[in-house]
Amino acid sequence: MDIHQLRVFTSVFRNKSFSKASQELHLTQPTISNHIKALEDEFGCNLFDRLGRTILPTREAEILFNHSMELIEKASAIKEAIGEISKDLTGKLIVGASTIPGVYLMPRIMKEFQKRYPLTTFQILISDSRGVIESVSKHELLLGIVGAKLGNEQINYMPFVEDELIVVSYPSRSRNNRMTLKELVKLPMILREEGSGTRRETEKFLESKGISIDSLKVAGIFGSTDAVKQAVKAGLGVSILSKFAVADELQHKILDEIKLTDVEMKRRFYIVTHKKRTQPRLYETFLKHILSESKNF
What we know:
Blueprint: H1 3-15, H2 18-25, H3 29-43, E1 48-51, E2 54-57, H4 59-83, E3 91-97, H5 99-116, E4 120-126, H6 129-137, E5 144-146, E6 155-169, E7 178-179, H7 181-184, E8 189-192, H8 197-208, E9 218-222, H9 225-233, E10 238-242, H10 247-251, E11 256-260, E12 266-274, H11 281-293
Parallel strand pairs: 3-4, 3-5, 7-11, 8-9, 8-10
Antiparallel strand pairs: 1-2, 5-12, 6-10, 6-11, 6-12
């Protein structure tokens, strides 16, 4: 048994598929199968039940998975400790982020981090808040940034940047740039999809004011912030969006802000990690950098 075999095993376990593990690790399926067979021979048990085209992990596989994650992390820590002699922080950071922090905050954060550590690279995986949190809870990601807290006991939520949700419209609609919440909800509304942090925070805010999302005149639901902005620009309706997401459009007068006279909509972004995972040195350093950058937004 070696660390490489354990990496192959954990990929098969998480994906519940030899072919998906093959794609993820860029190895052939026979190679994947040989590694799993070697582990099964070593432990004297089946790790996966083959049911036609699907596989199911056995109880032995579940035990091995928990120990494998710990061993892989310890091996990474040893490698980093030895690499620390050179003082050069290197490696690839894979970070999950919901749309607003991923698109509008992360590029600035990445630029400042790479100024200090030029040998590092990034991969930012954009999803909705629910998707990022699920990936962290399933050990598919070590670190994420989201726009809403969801009820998951395995997750640590660290407060990051405060955001303001504002109402935007296309200029020719917004003759009246000031109105009450009661006046606003009579207008056609453009919403993000369920699972979006912006959608969740909008629903929570409206419900706190006794307004059900079902009572709105919904003109359209879109799966990205950019799609919502395009719908607003096309005159389909008004929308509630992050101020970070529409800063350029407001500056160049492409969209107008409708100011609510009786309420403010504030929320906070959160950095999410798994309570039982140890952050490698590269991630720990980046996490400290994110927190220090929060005062600049």
